[in-house]
């Protein structure tokens, strides 16, 4: 490969430096509010320990691993919904109305760099919740090894990218931070209802089940269950190889929703205050 070609495909040092600086600024802002940071991160392991105390009889025997995996799946799914989606929506709205977004993009930073940096605190919180939640589960339950760690990483990474994109798009439709409680409600309600976490999809008519499997959170939940315990949507159990086959359709749906999030951000994200 020629020197010119190498330079063309390599990211410009300025871009990396600016993104790093913006990310450092966002993380610094996150660290200043230590109470909020502690509550956000400590919520996962505390919830695990609380539920283990309430449902102690399920933590023994063959069903312990499945129960622990279901608990972790719920924690990660709700973390993506409320940290990656709702919190990022309110953050983007607040930064826009304070003219922070306009000021940042008026300089040398690109919009992509600003969005990437703004999402980093939320990603850190989601990962911390998942890791601490896993540690709490392992400390209380004798869980087997993960069936497919690759699917867990894909669910977490693509799920975060998808909800971040939907959050930025939702912020463009939201006039104030307070209004985010209303503008984010449809996504929160639909995704939770059809995720398979709050309502068994088997109770729905068959056409509704097909629609539910195409909603944003369902493929994330499916991939997490497959990766953590090998549990399929119909209640079956698969090995590593079987989980790969079961993951094809959910992965396609999740990638499609991630692309929708990117396109929606380009279409509806606003960089100046709404008047």
Automatic annotation (TrEMBL):
Annotated transmembrane regions: 37-55, 67-93, 114-138, 150-170, 182-204, 247-265
This protein's name: ABC transporter permease
Source species taxonomy: Bacteria, Bacillati, Actinomycetota, Actinomycetes, Micrococcales
Coarse class of the protein's main subcellular location: membrane
Membrane topology: Multi-pass membrane protein
Residues of the ABC-2 type transporter transmembrane domain: 19-223
Origin superkingdom: Bacteria
Localization in the cell: Membrane
InterPro entries to which the protein is assigned, alphabetical: ABC-2_transporter (IPR052902), ABC2_TM (IPR013525)
PANTHER family: DOXORUBICIN RESISTANCE ABC TRANSPORTER PERMEASE PROTEIN DRRC-RELATED, TRANSPORT PERMEASE PROTEIN
UniProt KW keywords: Membrane, Transmembrane, Transmembrane helix
